[in-house]
Amino acid sequence: MSEELKHLDWSDIDTQCDNILRDCDQLPLNCVVGLSRGGLVPATIIANHMNVRKVYVHGYHSYDEQTKTRNRHGVMYQDVVYDLMKSQAGHNILIVDDLCDRGITMQGLVKRLYKKFHEDAVNIYTAALYCKSHSVYEPHFVGSRIEDEWLVFPWEPAEN
Hints:
Elements (H helix, E strand, L loop, with lengths): L4 E3 L2 H15 L6 E6 L3 H10 L5 E10 L4 E10 L2 H7 L4 E9 L3 H13 L6 E10 L8 E6 L3 E3 L8
Parallel strand pairs: 1-8, 2-3, 2-5, 5-6, 6-7
Antiparallel strand pairs: 3-4
């Protein structure tokens, strides 16, 4: 592995969430979507601080931990679109993930949502605790920009 391994602690997560909250605290959000699995904890933290009750989960990933490979199109295993279409048309949505590595996961969901909703039916914003410099997708809100560190989050097993 050519990437430097960096173990994060809860104070790192708090700092990155605070950075995002400082930038998006004036957004009138109606719901937050956490990208499973890594985005669930930061999505909950941000939703709590912004007093947003509706937190949804979307399962979509581009990295396979078993094979240590990437799927360039991503794999969806839990779809948030139906829930959002029932109750969120005309609202502001914040999609949150822990890491925007190549941007495939976040970009895929944003494209999917804009295909399902009529133009201007929703306002979609994105946030990532960390975003790598080589990402093809740029989230609206980023806690910190990084190079090629391999991040181990406090909710992940330490042996990764």
